[in-house]
Amino acid sequence: MSSEFAKEAPFYRLKQRVRHALGPWGVFLQGFLKNPVMVGSIVPSSRFTINRVLSAVDWDNTKLFVEYGPGVGTFCQPVLDRLSRDGTLLVIDLNPDFIDYLQKTITDSRFIAVNGSAADVEEIIRAHGHEKADYIISGLPFSTLPPGVGPAIASATYRVLRKGGAFLVYQFTPRAGDFMAQFFKRIDKGLEWINVPPCFLFWGWKDED
Ligand SMILES: C[S@@+](CC[C@H](N)C(=O)[O-])C[C@H]1O[C@@H](n2cnc3c(N)ncnc32)[C@H](O)[C@@H]1O
């Protein structure tokens, strides 16, 4: 069946209608159904998680804020609402459907969405004219990443952060804390109950160059 014909099929039209009715939740659910291991969650983060994770950020001294695994952008608008007018929010996601959705729905000139892996954060920010990031937030499913990828991401993140910056992580398992502890000497921890499911929070601080 040609792809044009497939798009006319009743099932395709029904799927599009359901996705449209559910808005970003529909896009997220579809991403999860396509690749559950990569997405790692069926429900986007709650506003309690968002507010709590972002409460540690010094927004006056944030020029580059990076996000790994934005999904359908649950954190993007809250970050943009807090970010200075000359700041940049650069998001990196492996799933091209999520990046396509974000590029279509977020029109803020401070926003950049890149289809790629968080492990390549150094090359990606350099390609956009930056040497260091002030803060990096991660919604990556650390416990289901392929072997070696979690430590590689934690290590690249440590290198790319400026002194005084932080790696902000929210996770359904405490595993991310283990990867972070190899590089970050100071890690603040928390648990947010009002989230599906409740999630562990980590703030890893880069105190030295
Ligand atoms: C749990 S979802 C995050 C959802 C969203 N940030 C939220 O708060 O609702 C995890 C995301 O990580 C992305 N992802 C998985 N591995 C990745 C990698 N190595 N680099 C970048 N993104 C990745 C997935 O495509 C998915 O969008």
Small-molecule binders: S-adenosylmethionine
| Category from helices, strands and their pairing | alpha/beta
CATH-wise, what's the superfamily?
Answer: Vaccinia Virus protein VP39
Count of individual beta strands: 7
- Count, helices: 10
Q: Any low-confidence stretches, pLDDT <50, length ≥5? A: none
Shape: globular
The strand line-up of the biggest sheet is: 3-2-1-4-5-7-6
What is the helix content?
40-55%
Stated plainly, the CATH topology is called Rossmann fold
Protein name: Methyltransferase domain-containing protein
InterPro entries: Methyltransf_25, SAM-dependent_MTases_sf
Domain Methyltransferase: 66-165
Keywords: Methyltransferase, Transferase
Describe this structure in words.
The longest helix has 13 residues, at 10-22. Strands 3-2-1-4-5-7-6 form a seven-stranded mixed sheet, sandwiched between helices. It contains ten helices and seven strands. The relative contact order is 0.14. The protein starts with a helix and ends with a strand. The chain is 41% helix and 22% strand. It is an alpha/beta fold and 209 residues long. Strand 4 (133-138), helix 9 and strand 5 (161-171) form a beta-alpha-beta unit. The chain has one domain: 3-Layer(aba) Sandwich (Rossmann fold). Bound molecules: S-adenosylmethionine. S-adenosylmethionine is lined by residues 38-41, 44-45, 68-71, 74-75, 92-95, 98, 117-118, 139-141, 149. Residues 66-165 form the Methyltransferase domain. This is Methyltransferase domain-containing protein. Keywords: Methyltransferase, Transferase. GO terms for molecular function: methyltransferase activity.
